[in-house]
Amino acid sequence: MDEKRKDLDSERQKKLLLGLVSDLSASHPEFYYQSTIEIASLLKDHIDSNAKLSVEDKALLAPLSRHDIQLRLSLQ
Which of 28, 23, 25, 27 has its CA nearest to residue 52? Predict the structure, then answer.
């Protein structure tokens, strides 16, 4: 049961991150040319500072490190 919950959380995190990438790429056209770790770093800073996320979504993404974000973005 816990494993299924982790998988669901992971998928939800990935969807949220991809949505944030889409939002940020509108204001940062150079995203396409940046490495995944650079994008992960920008996303982590955005999540920690001013991302317009629900409390639940922010709590789901808060424990992710830059490396965790990079891994989730690279698994497509």
Answer: 23
How do residues 26-76 score in pLDDT, each as one tens digit? 888 887 788 889 999 999 998 988 778 899 999 999 999 999 999 988 865
Identify the burial level of 24 via C-beta atoms within 10 angstroms of its C-beta, where 0-12 means exposed, 13-18 middle and 19 or more buried: middle
Max CA-CA distance within the chain? Answer: 41
Q: What is the pLDDT of residue 60?
A: 93
CA 75 and chain centroid, separation: 12
Residues 58/47, Cβ–Cβ less than 8 Å = yes
